[in-house]
Amino acid sequence: MSEHVKCLIIGAGPAGYTAGIYTSRADLKPLLIEGMQPGGQLTITNEVENFPGYPEGSSGPVIMDDIRNQALRVGTEMRSGMITKVDFSSRPFHCWLDDEQEIIADTVIVATGANARWIGMPSEQKFRGFGVSTCATCDGNFFRNKTTVVIGGGDTALEDALYLSQLCTKVYIVHRRDQFRGTAALQRQLLNTENIEVVWNTVPVDIIGEQKGFIKKVTGLQVRNVQTNEERTLEVDGVFEAIGVTPVSDIFKGQLDMNEQGYIITQPGTGRTNVEGVFAAGDVQDPNYRQAIVAAASGAVAGIEASRFLMEH
Ligand code: NAP
User: How confident is the model at residue 12 (pLDDT cuts 50, 70, 90)?
Assistant: First the structure.
């Protein structure tokens, strides 16, 4: 049996929940599908100092819980599961939840966010979950009093290294250039942290590790200095990759216009996609800012646009 909704929101990060708040208050009775990681990327962020409304700062999971509760309170219906297929060829749109249940929607707001990227080193996948991770806040605790390395030079890498420095005896941060991309305040903090060593102009080559039966363990990261071409191994117990994100847009390919990296293209300031009645918000359509507050704001825009669209049609 299929169900019909005025507004289907796909994704449960700051954009999706905020779209839920706006469309609920506009009486669209939105249905929000929460996907695999309710709360989105913020749920794996330990300390957040730049989301307004939290003068003392807060943690990602707390902020996301607050926004989710606000969306629930104003009437957003939340459902777990994944939208696995969509058909945007005619209106109302057809979407399938977990390959089974058909949801027919007058408007759709895509807020599926982005996932951490992997470098693609030869032994990376072999040691994934055994000392190789893209989430310091999830896995850092396994490396108490050990040595770890973070790869990357953006905000995520700087935050991860700072977080790990509180748990680990030593943290390397390996960056391919001689200048960080991340925020000045984080850079200052990092450069003043005694147990963090920055390895400039260096790229990762491969994970070094051991395997005994099913037990695998990381023992090092092979790296190469891009100026001298010299290779060496950093002796570490854990490797954290923080090299950016990829938008979660695969199921919309061929239906929504995207750029080369898979970011959905929206008309600036509107959230409108190439399909009338389908809007996109948050990191899935934002290659530039990728901030929780920007995602939340674009969720509000998409929510307002969806309700205006329904008034006009
Ligand atoms: P990012 O800003 O894209 O930085 C990725 C970093 O990884 C860059 O330093 C890049 O080097 C490096 N890199 C990329 N590909 C690589 C490869 N194959 N091998 C080695 N290094 C590689 O990604 P992010 O740090 O995840 O941040 C994403 C967005 O979220 C940003 O807009 C950031 O501001 C935001 N964010 C904000 C906060 C916050 O405000 N608290 C926290 C986390 C993230 P290059 O510098 O040489 O390109």
Answer: very high
Q: Quote the pLDDT of residue 45.
A: 77
- Is residue 206 lining ligand 1, measured as CB closer than 6 Å? no
Which distant-in-sequence residues (6+ apart) come within 8 Å of 193 by Cβ? Answer: 161, 162, 165
**Mapping DSSP to helix (H, G, I), strand (E, B) and coil, where does residue 310 land?**
helix
- Confirm whether 237 is a catalytic residue: no
d(CA 82, CA 112): 10
Question: Is 139 a catalytic site residue?
Answer: yes
Q: Which residue in this structure is represented by tokens 């208050």?
A: 25
Q: Is there a catalytic annotation at residue 95?
A: no
Q: Give tens-digit pLDDT for 56-81.
A: 999 999 999 999 999 999 999 999 99
- Edge-to-edge strand order for the sheet containing 215-225? 202-212, 215-225, 231-235
Contact 281, 112 (CB under 8 A): no
Please name the residue whose Cα sits nearest to atom 2 of ligand 1.
154
Q: Which of 89, 87, 88, 84 is nearest to 101 (CA)?
A: 84
Residues 6+ apart with CB under 8 A from 229: none
In the predicted model, is pLDDT for residue 1 greater than 80?
no
The Cα-based distances of 306 to 106, 191, 242, 313 in angstroms read 9, 46, 35, 11
- With contact defined as beta carbons under 8 Å apart, do 83 and 10 qualify? yes
Query: Is 119 close to ligand 1, i.e. is its CB under 6 Å away?
Result: yes
d(CA 139, CA 256): 35
Residue identifier of the C-alpha nearest atom 15 of ligand 1: 243
For the segment 228-243, what is each residue's pLDDT rounded down to a tens digit?
Answer: 999 999 999 999 999 9
pTM of the shown model: 0.85
Distance CA 298, CA 310 (A): 18
